[in-house]
Amino acid sequence: MSADSDAERSRRFREAALPHLDDVFTLARYLTRDPVDAEDAVQECYLRALRHFDSYRGPAIKPWLLAILRNVCVAEFARRSKQPAPAESTEADVNEDATPMWQEPQASPEAALLRQHDDKTIRRLVDALPQPFREVIVLREVNDLSYGEIADVAGVPVGTVMSRLARARSMLRAAWNVAEGSTP
Q1: Can you spell out the DSSP letters for 95-106?
Q2: Which of the residue ranges 85-99, 110-124, 128-142 has the most confident prediction, judged by mean pLDDT?
Q3: Inter-CA distances, 113 with 37, 103, 153, 175, Å
Q4: How far apart are the first and last CA of the chain?
Q5: Which DSSP state fits 53?
Q6: What is residue 57's DSSP assignment?
Q7: What is the value of pTM for the model shown?
Q8: Are 33 and 89 in contact (CB under 8 A)?
Q9: What is the pLDDT of residues 150-172, one digit of tens each?
């Protein structure tokens, strides 16, 4: 391969893949539950994607990237399960000042406080979901993937995606009601 074709390939990869970096990192953060591990997983995902970019065939690169990320995380979980597990990260380990990408500007200080409380609660509740449910809810509600794209990323049938989403939403609704002190 010539230097010109390498440069062209790199340019095409950057144009196709970099717009999805925030979405890939968001999923990585929810899968790994650790910002540093998420950064490592995203870096490995993009290295693998660049390495195999010539084999990519399809209209939507985002599901392909998310599938690679998921495989990176699964491989890392498998590797770590063979080692003694470190203590789970606690809520105190999470950067409380980090503003989520999806947060919109607030109209008033009171609304900002309420929104901040709700954001922290939702992040905590999503983090507490079992992995298969956390994964599909993030892919659908944060990354806005279709059921078919989620099925491809997760490697499960569409019906399983639909079932997991319904169950995840139900679990979140019940946990929200408990967290907010209302009756389910």
Answers
A1: -TTPPPTTPPPP
A2: 128-142
A3: 29, 12, 35, 21
A4: 62
A5: G
A6: -
A7: 0.61
A8: yes
A9: 999 999 999 999 999 999 999 99
